[in-house]
Amino acid sequence: MSSVIETPSGIGFQFSDEQVAVAHLVREFAQREIAPYVAEWDKRHHFSPQLYVKLAGAGILGMTIPEAYGGGGSDAITYALVVEELAKADAGTATTFSVHAMVAAAIDAIGSPEQRQRYLPKLASGEMLAAFALTEPESGSDAAALRTRAERVEGGFVINGRKQWCTNAGYSGVVMVMARSGGTGTDGISSFLVENGTPGLVVERVTEKLGIHTSNTVDLAFDSVMVPEGALLGAEGKGFRQALQTLNAGRIGIAAQACGILAACLHESIKFAKERRAFGKPIGAYEGISFKIARMQVDLDAARLLMYRAAWLKDQGRDFAVAASEAKLFASEAARRHSAEAVQIHGGYGYTTEFPVERYYRDSKITEIYEGTSEIHQIIVARSLLGRLA
């Protein structure tokens, strides 16, 4: 048995009944618990811890965590559906959920039995949020150039360094941190699980951003942070590869986030084009407006199908890295482009906070930057076709 979630054009994609039920659950939750408040939260740059307690209570926050640890055990396609539905209401909430789920997936995949038992039930129940710390002031796309160091000492490691743009880290219970424990380049980088409240771990600065104001982003300082041997996530020296694997899965989430933003732009543009009148008829009657909306729909369908393909490949245990890059590249650029068109369709109203399209415009840009810039993803796709020519 399968069901269809219809896109606005009537073109559907086949999902299981359970996946449809989850999508509807999240949609209803988002319309009830997020949509009425998001404009005010965005205005105040407000992160709502209470929202994630509610998300956990509804079974959404831990949806991708295995059932053995109190989660829902959902697959990658369900994860993508959840992120898109959250992003339709608020891209910042989708970011928080996506990073939380991404770190939980890494713990489940490469963590020790003790780490899985220690963290996954708390991440599923909402007792903890998870954060991710890879980027540094001098290493963004060139992540292997990171300078944060983890020196092995008796009983564990001492971490020193600075991390930038760490999503969720101001409110999280545990942070997945990449640090160099030896070697050069990609060799010698290890992953660690560092709990908030550990002496020496300090939130240095809350980042003021163009968009996704409801997502918490901070800079972290690690000043002689002592962590036990059990904080090492996976094999020592394999953290860079682990980070890339974590980001590959996260890129499906960013594609889904971009689809959610684009779907929200389309919804608001259709509504406005039918209601706003000019020269005696609705502005949607003019090709200058209707063609913009048509292109939105086409690109949304294309972005979703690329996203679903990447998620399906992941669920099948097949290599999905390039497919995830294609989905993230296309969906993020489409969201940024069409959010600008949504503002244009709304005219002067679109430039005000009276309508949500200005928020979609601001929120969309980050999808082209984090989890790998558009330029990085073009490199990944090109190399899959041409190999390394230099």
What is the distance, rounded to the nearest whole angstrom, between the alpha carbons of the first and last residues?
A: 50 Å
Chain oligomer state: single chain
Strand fraction band? 15-25%
Q: Helix and strand succession?
A: EEHHHHHHEEEEEEEEHEEHHHH
Record field, number of beta strands: 12
As a whole number of angstroms, the C-alpha radius of gyration is 21 Å
- Overall, the morphology is globular
Task: Please list the strands of the largest sheet in the order they lie side by side.
Answer: 3-6-7-10
In short:
The chain is of the alpha+beta class. The protein is 50% helix and 17% strand.
Word description of this protein:
The protein is α+β, with helices and mostly antiparallel strands. The chain is built from eleven helices and twelve strands. The strands form four sheets. Strands 3-6-7-10 form a four-stranded mixed sheet. Strands 4-5-9-8 form a four-stranded antiparallel sheet, with helices on one face. Helix 5 runs antiparallel to helix 6 and helix 7 packs antiparallel against helix 10. The N and C termini lie far apart (50 Å). About 2% of the residues have low confidence.
Topology:
Blueprint (H helix, E strand, L loop, with lengths): L2 E4 L5 E4 L1 H17 L4 H7 L4 H9 L18 H14 L1 H20 L2 H13 L4 E4 L15 E5 L2 E12 L6 E7 L8 E7 L5 E6 L10 E12 L3 E2 L5 H37 L1 E2 L2 E2 L4 H29 L5 H26 L10 H9 L8 H13 L4
Parallel strand pairs: 3-6
Antiparallel strand pairs: 1-2, 4-5, 5-9, 6-7, 7-10, 8-9, 11-12
Helix pairs in contact: 1-4, 4-5, 4-7, 5-6, 5-7, 7-8, 7-9, 7-10, 8-9, 9-10, 9-11
